Amino acid sequence: MKVGIIGCGNIAQVHAWALSGIDEVRMTAFCDIILKKAEDLAARYANEGSYEVFDDYRALFKTDVDAVHICTPHYLHAPMAFDLLNHGKAVFMEKPCAISVEQFKALKEADKRNPNKLGFCFQNRYNESTMMIDALISEGKIGSVIGGRAFVTWRRDEDYYKSSDWKGRLSTEGGGALINQSIHTLDLLLRYLGEPEEVKGSVHCHHLHDIEVEDTVEAWMSFADGKRACFYASNGYTDDAPVIIEIQGDKGRLMLNGTDIIVWDSATQCEVIKCEEPKGLGKGYWGSGHKACIEDFYRCLINRKPFSNNLQSVENTFTVAMKIYKFLP
């Protein structure tokens, strides 16, 4: 399969690295409004055969690429995916899937017209620790799930936003600590709780004053079957601390602390499971699941099977985020 990449910045390096290890694909198109970035990424990863570089993503409509990775600023994700799908290309997109309800609705229509061609990089679903938690809950280690909580405490200062012309602006980033830094954590929390019946939350800017998006978010959720969840994320900490997710059952509880899983069962016994996550490329807090996630996307495309990280699978996470932002009732 011939693959293109749009947006050749930091996260594109991770995508290209993952793609370079898949025998069945070859990168043949690189696009960035700063053409030098596209040329540099191509020089590093397009080692076999010919390739093209572009500074306008619409040029890819007429190429013979089969799939395109969207690694651009947030506000471009959904519109670009919409256009590419309608030109017959498969699309693999970085988070978020959209920054507004209107964008999501348009993307949903394009997805309906082009089934099984759209995938999302929710790579933490592929972490060894995630799969271990899946197994522990499935085997009844903590009984029935009755609640959960999650904490993300990272650090983003003024220089983080000054280094970009789109971060920190509501119209281009779509939000801050929630939709950018902690959306993967919210996604994993909801993985074990389902679709909330009620969502109440608020966003704040506590330590950053020259941005339009939040540096802190908190939320409370309740579910039709009685489950409850609390969620907190802030960019105001001293460091990028390990993410904490705790799932409470009626016979015990388990906690993910970074890559370690701590389990308390009904006999109050404590067990620590250390998950050896394979090392990925890029920043440590991006996790190590990009490679497995991207490989799975192409495995599904090649075998004409549905990809698990499809639009339907991320809709609950997107909807809850929009409710916390109060873009949805």
Distance between the termini: 42 Å
* Gyration radius from CA atoms, angstroms: 20 Å
Name the shape in a single word: globular
**How would you spell out the order of helices and strands?**
EHEHEEHEHEHEHHHHEEEEEEEHH
Strand order of the largest sheet: 8-9-10-7-11-12-13-14
CATH homologous superfamily of the largest domain, by name?
Dihydrodipicolinate Reductase, domain 2
CATH topology of the largest domain: Dihydrodipicolinate Reductase, domain 2
The percent range for helix content is 25-40%
Strand content: 15-25%
Count up the helices. Answer: 11
Number of domains: 2
Give the rounded overall mean pLDDT. 94
Residue runs with pLDDT of under 50 for 5 or more positions: none
Number of strands: 14
> Biggest β-sheet: count, sense, barrel?
8 strands, mixed
Could you characterize what this model shows?
- The structure is a single chain.
- The chain is an alpha/beta fold.
- The termini are far apart.
- The model has no long low-confidence stretch (mean pLDDT 94).
- The protein contains eleven helices and 14 strands.
- The protein folds into two domains: 119 residues, 3-Layer(aba) Sandwich (Rossmann fold); 160 residues, Dihydrodipicolinate Reductase, domain 2 (2-Layer Sandwich), CATH 3.30.360.
- The radius of gyration is 20 Å and the shape is globular.
- The strands form two sheets. It has an eight-stranded mixed beta sheet with strand order 8-9-10-7-11-12-13-14. The protein has a six-stranded parallel beta sheet with strand order 3-2-1-4-5-6, sandwiched between helices.
